[in-house]
Amino acid sequence: MRRYGRRRRLIAAALAAIAVAAAFVATRPAPGSTVLVAARDLSPGPLRPDDLHPTPLHHPPAGAIRAAAAGRVLAAPMRKGEPLTDVRLLDSFRLPPGLIATPVRIADAATAGLISPGSTITVLAAWDDGQPARSIAEGVRVITIPPATEHTSAHGALVVLATTASQATELAAAQAGGHLSITISPNLE
């Protein structure tokens, strides 16, 4: 009787080990595909060949970029190791109907460091002739902030906004004769 009890325990242990091995094989991720990931923290702007490197991922996100992306423009910051997807690229960005991309220069270049693509801002204009500052474009979304150059601090920071055609006209007129600044709205979405 004791012999049969031992055999049953051995058989039960063997069956349990087989079940664990089968579960491991069944839940093991399938071999993934190779996608491009950030080699380091990246700022918006043109991508260089050494900004990204290919990495195999078991579950790549939808829209993951698998081919070379050097020369394309990154629309938003990326963290090191984050996969590059099509929605991160400026040339993949689609403006809603009725909006256009409008580049403007913000007088205080340091202010551009407070916003990022997706931020909602209001653009204000001030003139040197003593007119009071006024709002030119309210609730506009930042599309991208091109990388700063050595001339940025002297001429302000370039910011590309999603605006209506009439807001673009107002912004052009205001920056031709005045200085632009911004207020930042909280993104509550």
From TrEMBL:
InterPro entries: RcpC_dom (IPR031571), SAF (IPR013974). Residues 33-90 form the SAF domain. Pfam families: RcpC, SAF. The keyword Signal applies. Keywords: Cell projection, Cilium, Flagellum, Signal. The keyword Transcription regulation does not apply. Residues 1-25 form the signal peptide. This is Flagellar biosynthesis protein FlgA. It comes from Nonomuraea zeae.
